[in-house]
Write a structure and sequence with these properties.
By secondary structure, the protein is an alpha/beta fold. α1 runs parallel beside α2 and α6 runs antiparallel to α8. The chain contains 10 helices and 7 strands.
């Protein structure tokens, strides 16, 4: 912590962009102190976070109160499931808290749509919903894209490669076929299939033109990644064994696991 704060203190006058990752930055005890050190130079600095957005408060300090002076804040929020599977996929996570906190973010920093967008919204605070695509959630990537869009968040994905038995490439061939077919139908008409919700972020055509190609590109890349290798024989049973053991720890009943497998086209 001392080294981080010393770095912040020395670098603050020259900073333009600061990425704050984790663990979870909003429960880091040095976070508020670091931002206070940056305050005199905040108007020149864009902050980017990687967060689960399950909390906004640490030791009585609300992070929203620390952002007023910064040039822009980008929240890269981990959203690895729609509301039906989020709490299963991210054990210990709370989808209700995430949704409530996203609402609080936009209440404190409302969407203004002051100028046309080019590559990224120019709002004071922007939420980017990033889904780490895996065997757990690729079958529901269309629903996740709609959920993220409905939150008023920019869509983004990455791929699970480790542990290898949780990669989407471990899926059975028939599951991959069904998932690919469904997701291609979704992205072939992104405009018609995306559920924009009532977020003010999507009230302009310029903003929608940012989201549509992102949803198309990231979902298509996820399909290609899933079909890029066949790891079923080597790792699928390892996935099932792990999940059964982990579900015992989580007190997930067997029927809950079976429902998850069915919803994900795994059985």
């Amino acid at each position: 912590a001392d080294k981080i704060l010393d770095f912040i203190r020395k670098s603050a006058p020259h900073l333009e962009y600061l990425m704050i990752t984790g663990g979870e930055p909003f429960i880091d005890t040095t976070h508020a102190e670091a931002l206070k050190l940056l305050k005199p130079y905040a108007k020149n600095i864009v902050l980017e976070y990687t967060t689960n957005l399950n909390t906004l408060t640490k030791n009585g300090v609300n992070v929203l109160e620390l952002w007023d002076d910064f040039k822009q804040v980008r929240l890269k929020v981990s959203i690895d499931g729609d509301p039906d599977i989020y709490n299963y996929v991210r054990y210990g996570g709370n989808i209700e808290a995430l949704m409530a906190n996203a609402k609080k973010v936009y209440e404190r920093f409302p969407i203004e749509n002051k100028e046309p967008y080019k590559f990224f919204p120019s709002e004071k605070v922007v939420i980017v919903g990033t889904c780490t695509v895996s065997i757990y959630n690729i079958a529901r990537l269309d629903k996740i894209a709609n959920f993220i869009t409905g939150l008023g968040a920019i869509f983004h994905t990455s791929q699970v490669n480790y542990p290898p038995f949780q990669s989407s490439q471990v899926l059975p061939a028939e599951s991959k076929r069904k998932i690919s077919e469904n997701l291609y139908k979704f992205i072939d008409d992104v405009e018609g299939n995306l559920q924009w919700g009532d977020s003010l972020l999507w009230q302009t055509p310029e903003a929608r033109e940012i989201q549509k190609p992102r949803v198309y590109r990231f979902i298509k890349n996820s399909i290609h990644h899933m079909n890029g290798a066949d790891k079923y024989d080597a790792l699928y049973q390892r996935f099932l064994d792990f999940e059964k053991q982990f579900n015992q720890h989580k007190d997930v009943p067997p029927e809950g696991f079976q429902r998850f497998l069915a919803d994900s086209h795994l059985i």
